[in-house]
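Human:
Class, as today's exercise, you are to examine the entry below, and be ready to discuss the fold:
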Amino acid sequence: MQSSFIRCAAAVGLLLFTGAALAHPGHGTHTLAAGLLHPFGLDHLLALLAVGLWSVLALPARKAWQGPALFVLALLAAGVLGWMGFMLPWQGQALALSVLLFGALLLLSTLRQVPLGWGLGLVALAGVVHGLAHGFQVPGSGAGVYALGLVLSTALLHGLGVLLGLGIRRWLAARQGLVFAGLGAALGLAGLALFGQLAA
């Protein structure tokens, strides 16, 4: 059982490395593979994992799926707007800021009871920001298969975040607060570093 958690944690580590290497693959293409690869850009990947982690930490055990589902719905709705050409100013900085805010939310949730409405509101807002970014980059042709790949990868990364959170709760129960807080701090620092790179 413990080895299963170790394998899950190792897989997440590999995904983080892959995300850093790939940055934002698939722009300007129209294939299923490009859609599958796109969310592995580091800012997207960290935000998606964070949604899964926070959902396990803050939501009732049988409702951990609600955070990822809300994000995906917001992403799809905003993705249509992005595909139609709408884009926020400072889009890249907004993506990095979402990682920073998720880190802060995760850290704060280990210290005190954060109202679920605030957390879910941030999840929805981040879904909109990421959806606009994704949608703006969807090509005119092949948009359907590209979007399908993108949604599948988004759901996979949410699922990995949830599994990681469940693994922490099960195998590191005595130290789960410290582990979640550490992950929140790491996410916050990563978001700050991404924001700093874009602002430089």
